[in-house]
Amino acid sequence: MNFRGMVRAPSVPALGLLALLSFLSSEPVQAGKVLVMPVDGSHWLSMKILVEELSLRGHEMVVLVPETSFLIRASANYTTKSFRVPYTIAELNANLDHIKKTAFEKPPQMTDIFVNLGNLMQFTNMQVKGCEGLLYDESLMKSLRETGFDVMLTDPFLPCGTILADSFSLPAIYFLRGIPCRLDESAAQCPSPPSFVPRFFTGYSDKMTFPQRARNTLMTIFEMFLCRKLFASADELASRYLQKDTTYKELLGHAAVWLLRYDFTFELPKPQMPNMVHIGGINCAKRGPLTKELEEFANGSGEHGFVVFTLGSMVSQLPEAKAREFFEAFRQIPQRVLWRYTGPVPENAPKNVKLMKWLPQNDLLGHPKVKAFITHGGSHGIYEGICNGVPMVMLPLFGDQGDNAQRLVARGVAEALSIFDVTAEKLLVALRKVLNDKSYKEKMSELSAIHRDRPIEPLDLAVFWTEFVMRHKGADHLRSAAHELNWIQYHSLDVIGFLILILVTVIFVIVKSCMFCFRKCFRKNQKKKKE
Amino acid sequence: MNFRGMVRAPSVPALGLLALLSFLSSEPVQAGKVLVMPVDGSHWLSMKILVEELSLRGHEMVVLVPETSFLIRASANYTTKSFRVPYTIAELNANLDHIKKTAFEKPPQMTDIFVNLGNLMQFTNMQVKGCEGLLYDESLMKSLRETGFDVMLTDPFLPCGTILADSFSLPAIYFLRGIPCRLDESAAQCPSPPSFVPRFFTGYSDKMTFPQRARNTLMTIFEMFLCRKLFASADELASRYLQKDTTYKELLGHAAVWLLRYDFTFELPKPQMPNMVHIGGINCAKRGPLTKELEEFANGSGEHGFVVFTLGSMVSQLPEAKAREFFEAFRQIPQRVLWRYTGPVPENAPKNVKLMKWLPQNDLLGHPKVKAFITHGGSHGIYEGICNGVPMVMLPLFGDQGDNAQRLVARGVAEALSIFDVTAEKLLVALRKVLNDKSYKEKMSELSAIHRDRPIEPLDLAVFWTEFVMRHKGADHLRSAAHELNWIQYHSLDVIGFLILILVTVIFVIVKSCMFCFRKCFRKNQKKKKE
User: Fold this and answer.
1) Which site in A213, A370, A458, B408 is 20 to 30 Å from B266, CA atoms measured?
2) Residue A267 is part of which domain span?
């Protein structure tokens, strides 16, 4: 850019400063009642930020919590209502352990998609059973119904909130990164051409070769069957409980607003619908100070700085042999390492490594001395990396993490490794690249600057749309008429068939007429010849 | 909603108040250089608001103006650079008069689309010739090139700005309501399924019957030819001037950001691309006080209030007989009427009508005593009606106005009449409906409330994205990979063909194999029988 110089001009928000001040002093905000049906684990950690913010703004927040919950706890900021589920925390853990085992102990291969699917189906079915515990808890349901909520805020990764919203006739706000097999996009009637929108588990970018596009198209067809299978138990519960013939996808289609936890610094540009709002990076909104102990560790890392290493909220251990590889690699770098790890520690563990049960990930990534982030590639960690401009080494475990890693590697801000065959050597190569090759940090700083350059903060946007839906009892003006079309109508297959039929008929009639005329003429000529 | 009461809570913008205040006091805004290529007429009136705002924020604004301009004038807020065009204002007027005549004197019919197209083509070709005057003005081009602009802000209704942006290698920001035959959507690679996105000139809503969907699909095919014909002169000029084989559509595809002058209180919900930003209602941003004369006229209208009547910036006269019908209708209503009209006035003109050469439309529509708005249905007037919650009587003349009117009639906030056969009686029926049936006002107030309930003002949003593009030299992260696909690839027709080929081959092989086996068995049986 050719700048004439630095001129002080009012910022965009400043344009409305006077209006804002008068707004603050005069206009009261109406407090509503929000029913919240979260999904446990890291999903809850980002939704909690919105729940607490809405509570701060005077809204009554009621959060439904299964008895066996990993991370959803009571708080002074919101009311929790607990419901019984037909499984124990041990059973949940066993389910999770099985998923982890798949990642750690099997080489990545083509059939992973079926393994992933099987694991996911088992998890979803378990959670749908849990949902039954809530829906058929009559006294709890009665008390909820009588509360008279204004809106349902839910994570549609699991179907319970959606069924509840329909049962209570509440407008629903969906808070999500995405639903397996793109059920969110198809429910929202959002076009998603397979020619430039890669499907999950393919690891493709938006620039595909012909074979990749062909496989992506096949994956699209496969997804349709996948969805049906994956959410069969949800469809069954919805139809049974709501006493109408419906599917989870159909219920999802009634969404008022989709609050999507991504933006296009991470996700690839693709078509959107008017009721989709991007709140990627909402989990970076709140950054706290570090404890004295962590502050000292970080500051004491000197010029080399330090590395943060976590594998997400659900994975704090590694098979012993694998853990040893990590310790071995960390021994050979001059950086300090902060690692969330609760497994066995070898006797000669390197001194530059500090192990912790839990890490304040976002607070640490915001520290000026942080140099790299080793992560499994969950969307939360990724955004904390992007917000703070920290290049990454990624070890995707399951779900969307493989695709996530691919996206960041393609942007030149991360290196990816397979957790199955990671060795100290491989880790060192990747880590040294990210630490020493300046391009990773530069590209990440650029990406971070673009991500943070936005007209309104994601948390404010999420609050705005939740309140909008309460104020207007939905967001009907954003609802596409495509919801009234079936699959054939949506893609105009009936119209195309009809037009082809007309075209063929017209061609047929013309050809027949020509042939008729030709024969007539030909016969006449023959007759003449004979005569 | 079930409200617990009225609770004072901080507003969304207040959340960032401290951050904002510190931003104001510390962070300087870099001033850039913006080259502006506007389109004359009402198009300029809304773009001017953004140009002036950017100027206020310290940016250097250079506006390119053809010598024969209706409404683009010099200003202290921006520099204008004039260029010669090979037509006079009289020729421009003649062109416009021809368009008006078509509307006033011919009954609306199926073939209007060809008439509209012919008029539009004549206008576009004239303006493309005008553009040549600019592009081949070597000294002006040299001085512009040397200025070193950061961004091109242009209205792509006409192609000159786009060609210039490519020539100067500037990122382009498009400011528009839409381009004829949806060239904007196809250039942006935005999916636009004909099953629920009605085409221009059809007058359909987004809920179509089968025959309507079939016609809409045919219109889609027709549009492709239309586009080529309509912008043939632009394609030719672009290829010749830029010395490469290109089209206007291809150049448009390089857009950094599309600032779209609509939102979904007016437009029907449809798919969008990530670099599309909605700034509908930007023209309502600035409301000034009324002159003493107008204030007295408005306030003196008593309990019945007054009606505002304009047919847009380009039409201030009517054929005499038609004007008489309007005077006759106005005589019979108790409201006062403010009419932008410069034609002959009958001797016995009713006293409740005040004629003016120019109306401060948005200022008047914001007056508490305004009861209805008679308009031709241009998008600017429509938004001023929506912002201020004023129900309308619509008299579409040409272009998108027929479709615009249909959208508002469907929402129950307007009545539409044909200007060709309008009579005092018809006008009275429509006007009395809108004035006396409370539902029009109620629905319009609701629509207005939804339109004005937004997290950020459209003008601020337009300023933000212009500055974003300057800061980051474009908005590449929002650019879809679909731009690298041709039409066949985009719709996966090659992949579908390939998959069908494989399917057919597999079926063929299976059938042949079965037949082979069957024959073998059959023959064996026959042989055995013979033996």
Assistant:
1) A458
2) 29-284+457-478
> Global pTM?
0.92
3-state secondary structure B20-55: HHHHHHHCCEECCEEEEECCCCHHHHHHHHHHHHHH
Tell me whether residue A81 is exposed, middle or buried, using C-beta atoms within 10 angstroms of its C-beta: 0 to 12, 13 to 18, 19 or more: middle
How many contacts, defined by CB atoms under 8 Å, are there between A and B? 273
B456, B487, B488, B493: best mutation site toward chain A, by most A Cβ within 10 Å?
A: B456
- Report CB contact under 8 Å: A450, B472: yes
Q: Are residues B77 and B225 in the same domain?
A: yes
User: Minimal Cα–Cα distance from B498 to chain A, Å?
Assistant: 8
Burial level of A121, CB count in 10 A (0-12/13-18/19+)?
middle
If one counts every other C-beta atom within 10 angstroms of the C-beta of residue B514, the result is 10
Buried (b) or exposed (e) across A27-57, using 16+ Cβ within 10 A? eebbbbbbbbbbbbbbbbbbbbbbbbbbbeb
* Residue A149 belongs to domain with CATH number: 3.40.50.2000
Distance from CA of B238 to the nearest CA of A (A): 26
Among A201-210, A314-323, B124-133, which is the least confidently predicted range? A314-323
In a domain, B407, yes or no: yes
> What is the reported pLDDT for B123?
87
The answer to whether position A1 is within a domain reads: no
| pLDDT surpassing 90 at residue A366 | yes
> Of A238, A231, A39, A234, whose CA–CA distance to A128 is shortest?
A234
Q: Which token pair is B415?
A: 């009545």
- Using CB atoms, pick whichever of B1, B480, B485 lies closest to residue A269: B480
Same domain? For A208 and A309 the reply is no
**Is residue A11 included in any domain, yes or no?**
no
pLDDT of residue B110: 65
Average pLDDT over residues B115-120: 80
Task: Determine whether the interchain pair B13/A2 forms a contact, defined as Cβ–Cβ distance below 8 Å.
Answer: no
Instruction: Check whether residue B236 and residue B331 sit in a common domain.
Output: no
With an 8 Å Cβ cutoff, are A485 and B196 in contact? Answer: yes
B195 shares its domain with B235: yes
Q: What is the pLDDT of residue B250?
A: 96
* Dihedral over alpha carbons A460, A464, A466, A468 (to 10 degrees): 180
Which residues in chain B have their CB less than 8 angstroms from residue A219's CB?
Answer: none
Kindly tell me if the per-residue pLDDT of A5 is higher than 60: no
The pLDDT of B220-224, averaged and rounded, is: 90
Does B470 contact A57 at a Cβ distance shorter than 8 Å? no
> Which residues of chain B make contact with A481, given a CB cutoff of 8 A?
196, 205-207, 268-269
Residue B325 shares a structural domain with residue B184: no
**A398 & A367 share domain:** yes
**ipTM attached to this prediction:** 0.91
Task: For residue A255, report the phi and psi dihedrals to the nearest 5 degrees.
Answer: -45, 135
pLDDT above 80 for A4: no
Average pLDDT over residues A328-350: 93
> DSSP of B135-152, one letter per residue?
HT-HHHHHHHHHH--SEE
The C-alpha of B111 sits at a distance from chain A's nearest C-alpha, in angstroms, of: 22
Q: What is the pLDDT of residues B14-49, one digit of tens each?
A: 444 433 443 343 334 479 999 999 999 889 999 999
Residue with the larger pLDDT of the pair A444 and A403: A444
pLDDT per residue as tens digits for the range A120-135: 888 889 999 999 999 9
The partner residue sitting opposite A15, judged by closest CB among B207, B460, B472, is B460
Nearest to B29 among A7, A265, A495 (CB): A7
| Residue A116 pLDDT level (bands cut at 50, 70, 90) | confident
- How many Å lie between the alpha carbon of A58 and the closest alpha carbon of chain B? 6
- Do A247 and A100 belong to one domain? yes
Note whether B211 and B325 are same-domain residues. Answer: no
Q: Do B3 and A471 touch (CB under 8 A)?
A: no
**Closest chain A CA to residue B490:** A195
Dist. CA A61–CA A80, nearest whole Å: 8
The total of structural domains in chain A comes to 2
